[in-house]
Structures are given as C-alpha cells and as structure tokens.
Automatic annotation (TrEMBL):
HAMAP family named among the record's database cross-references: SurE (MF_00060)
Broad class of where this protein is predominantly found: cytoplasm
GO molecular function, one term: nucleotide binding
Function: Nucleotidase that shows phosphatase activity on nucleoside 5'-monophosphates.
Organism annotation: Halorubrum hochstenium ATCC 700873
Record-linked InterPro entries: SurE (IPR030048), SurE-like_Pase/nucleotidase (IPR002828), SurE-like_sf (IPR036523)
Protein name: 5'-nucleotidase SurE
Transmembrane segments: none
Binding site for a divalent metal cation: 11-12, 42, 90
Amino acid sequence: MSVDRILLTNDDGVDAAGIRALYDALAEEYAVTVVAPAADQSSVGRLLSEDVAVDDHGLGYVVDGTPVDCVVAGLDELVPDADAVVAGCNEGANLGAYTLGRSGTVSAAVEAAFFGVPAVATSMYVPGGDDWWKREFEGEDFAHAARATRFLVDEAVDAGVFDRADYLNVNAPIADEERAPLRVTTPSTWYGMRAERNGDGRVGFSDPIWGRMNEDDVPDPVGTDRRAVVDGEVSVSPLSVPHAAEPNAGLDELVEAYEAAVRS
C-alpha cells in the first residue's frame, strides 16, 4: 500500500509545538489531518471516553478527549481514509518497556494498530533537571524527530516494515547542529520506579533513570532505546500490539487440577 493521507495526533494538545513541527514536515508530501486533544493528555495511556466533543480546527479537528479518543474518532468517523497514523511529537521521551502503556503518544499508535493502520509514535528526549518540562520549545528543537518521522513514513510502508511490526516507537534527541543517525532498538527492560511515604498520608513516586541519563550513567547496552538517545541517536523500535497470548504457559495442568477440586 502507499501512504497518501495521514491522521496526526498527540497527547500534549493541539497547540503544542511538537505536533506543528511534524505537521509541517509531513504536509510537504502528504494530506495531513490533525485530530488532537484540546488540552494536555500526557500519561493517560489508553483511556477511552464514553463520548467527546469535536470541533473544527485550522489543521483538522480538536477533540475534548484523550489520544485514543482521537484515533478512534479519527479512523472510524472523521478521517476514515487515513493510510497511516502519526502521534507526536511528544515533549519528553517515551523510553523503556514500562513506559509504553502509560504514554498517550504510544497509546495512540497502539490503537491505530488495532485498526490495522500503520502507525508511528514520535517523542523527543530533553535532558535536564526535574523542571525540564517548563521549557518553551520551538519548531527547530524537533528537527531530528521530524526528519526521522518523515523518512519512516516515506519508506517503511513500501519496505514491508508493517508486515512484521504493528507500530514504530521513535525517540529522538533534542535537535543540535549535527544530524542524528537512526538506530533500530528494543525497549529497555530496566525498571527502577520508587515510592516513598512523605509523612502526610501520601506516597510520592520517582524514576531515578532520568538523573542517571543526565550523568550518562544508563544501565542499558547498545541496541536499547534509552542508550540510543543518550548517545545522540534517533531510536526506532518496531513493536507489536500488546498482550500476545502465550500457548499453555503451564495452565493446562492447573485447569485440570481446578476441575478436580471443584468436583471433589
């Protein structure tokens, strides 16, 4: 198949700089229709609303809902002729296997995969302290992400990538003067989430990996998504939709034991 029309969404909201950067890169070649949330929907995962308000927007549609709402409404109603879905560019990386289900950006691509539509989720790694998210981003900051996304949309479908993968999770470093190379990766399996009671009846959460990334002390080998962005590369992980069934997994014997217990 060839790609002519793209549904573009995100989880940072329709007015975010990252979605505009991808729109500008993709609209040079493709018919791009934005179907994006009205406000920031970061880390909502695959949350689906019962119904949503939809309004016209200069680039397509704005949805008072989640990224998954945008994809379902887009592919089944608003842009049913879309050949591909692109989600992003997220302000902040989506690295590691444990982040995939949390990310609204990645969840949009996963939802598209269930529709059988090729999808690319694109995010940008921003180094810095705990307040990096307060930074105001410009279109040029997303140059690595936009260039890689455009290339993958141009080439991956015809190359048969989506015959073997359901979606691509792309993470690019924030742009600098050098062109970042592309590396095929797998999501890191390192997990280090922490919880701490703070004395007022609440528990706070932290993820120490971000500080380690700032110090170039990541526990990941070459070939993982996190190592790639720390090394100044664009990571692209070819992934399948979640929850693949494992044949048996030793449950047949347990089923027999359960049935015997029930009869006894």
